[in-house]
Task: inverse folding
């Protein structure tokens, strides 16, 4: 998915373009973590980063609400079309075939048009959800880079790609705490918008790349 594709690209940039040591030298700070233990690899749980942060939880709630609204709209439209179909069926008994045919064809064409429009809305919502997830990882990327730098890590891996790991190299909890503190829940603007716009809150001072 886009979010995973995006973060994978960003992590490659961390490894090959801005190694943690280089960042630390440019800022005049040590790349080693506060406990003095440095590990070249850090681990992140991307799913928990979404489900555990206030921003991610709010995004999930907005996606769920938008999906429920679309389901309710589909059911309402289905009910209206069913009633209209029953009325047409009742009219057919009192009309000759030539007079009824245009009515039936117009109804069928309208049903197909409505079905296509609703399917397009469903695809658009799915695309918006993917875009919102990608935007989330773009927004938290500077936080992940900073946590890697603080721990002296050069590689950030998804936990599902790791069979065994040493204690203390998973930075998910630390990342969630930073996200909640610096980004909070994303502000007042909706994160999912049915007009196709995914909004991002402004980056906080501590997360600028």
Result:
């Amino acid at each position: 998915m886009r979010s995973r594709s995006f973060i994978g690209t960003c992590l490659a940039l961390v490894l090959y373009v801005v190694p943690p040591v280089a960042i630390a030298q440019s800022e005049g700070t040590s790349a080693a973590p506060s406990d003095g233990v440095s590990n070249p690899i850090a681990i992140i749980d991307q799913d928990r980063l979404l489900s555990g942060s206030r921003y991610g939880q709010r995004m999930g709630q907005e996606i769920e609400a938008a999906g429920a609204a679309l389901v309710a709209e589909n059911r309402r439209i289905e009910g209206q079309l069913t009633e209209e179909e029953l009325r047409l069926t009742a009219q057919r008994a009192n009309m000759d075939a030539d007079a009824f045919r245009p009515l039936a064809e117009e109804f069928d064409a309208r049903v197909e048009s409505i079905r296509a429009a609703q399917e397009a809305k469903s695809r658009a919502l799915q695309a918006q959800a993917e875009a919102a997830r990608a935007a989330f990882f773009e927004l938290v990327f500077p936080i992940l880079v900073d946590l890697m730098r603080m721990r002296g890590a050069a590689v950030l891996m998804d936990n599902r790609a790791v069979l065994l790991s040493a204690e203390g190299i998973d930075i998910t909890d630390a990342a969630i705490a930073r996200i909640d503190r610096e980004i909070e829940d994303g502000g007042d603007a909706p994160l999912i918008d049915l007009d196709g716009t995914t909004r991002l809150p402004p980056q906080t001072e501590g997360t600028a790349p």
About this structure: The chain has six helices and two strands. The first helix runs from residue 2 to 16. Residues 1-36, 196-209 have pLDDT under 50 and may be disordered. The two ends are 23 Å apart (CA to CA).
